[in-house]
Amino acid sequence: MKYVTFLICGLLTTVGMQAQPVPAGDENIPYLMTFAPKAGTSWGDDDFSQTFFFLIPKSFTQPIYIRVFDPDISGTTDELDGVFDSRMTYSVFGGKECFTNKDAVETSPKGNYKSGNMLASKTFGTQVEYDNKWYTFGPFNPSEGEYVQRFDGYIFKVICDGIAGDDGNLYRYFLSTKMDENKAVEGANAFAYEYSFRMHDNATEVSHIYPYVDDRTISVKLSNFDWDSDGFIRTVSVARKGQLSKVSGEDNWVEDEFKIFDEEKNTSLDIQFIKRKTPPVKNNNVVVNVRNQYGELLPFYVIPIGGVPTYKSTIAVKKPAAK
Ligand SMILES: [Ca+2]
Ligand SMILES: [Ca+2]
Ligand SMILES: [Ca+2]
Ligand SMILES: [Ca+2]
What we know:
CATH architecture of the largest domain: Sandwich
CATH topology of the largest domain: Jelly Rolls
Number of strands: 22
Mean pLDDT: 92
Bound molecules: calcium ion
Shape: globular
Number of helices: 2
CATH class of the largest domain: Mainly Beta
Largest sheet: 9 strands, antiparallel
């Protein structure tokens, strides 16, 4: 049933940009992942904190809700170390600087990363009543977010911080118009500058992240953490058929730098996470970020800007001639 829902969402996002599960359908990422602070980073989370931004178009004026699936840290959906004894705090921020503060858009929970007005906050532990269930923050008036001119919309920030314990928290979000069900906000999107997520166990599943390349981007540095040598990380774009990147093993960061083609500007890249078949890697948690030549992070939109890029052979054929 869950799989069917994901498929439907995937179709909707390509057609109408109106579904906001996070992760979204095209990403095929089963869960976001944040570990509690006493976990070793070898479990797959480098900093025990994850930030997501939700973008509401100015034209949308109805109340919104931010829903969390499996907010607790217990049961079958989370990653156990010993006994479940962890706590996580989810906080929703809006107002001035919730997005435009420079600490808010970095990869690590440092400085004033909790900038803006805290609109709501709740800490979860082992509450079984929320196991595999939704918890809803809100309602929020869209204007409680931070208005950002270049998006012509309001931005909310949600941070999940590991507070205590050593277990891993799997969860998902949904930006909804309803308190007790998932109803998409038309024209909305969500994005992050660093993605910390759980891979599928099934080796045939491919997960995707879609960094948006703006027209100032000349080169990018793709960084991945604790990939556990699980197969390939490959980049596809309008001008790139499938370029393999260096991958990390256990508890380390690996970086790969490459030039951006002119044709890739103002499009999304499709970074594909392809599992190895044997021996199988289970419970693989990984962290990914992408920076440009200025060291600025590229946003990963859950609904890729310009759609999922497909390689166009005509572009590639043209390229050598243009040089
Ligand atoms: Ca534990
Ligand atoms: Ca759970
Ligand atoms: Ca959970
Ligand atoms: Ca891992």
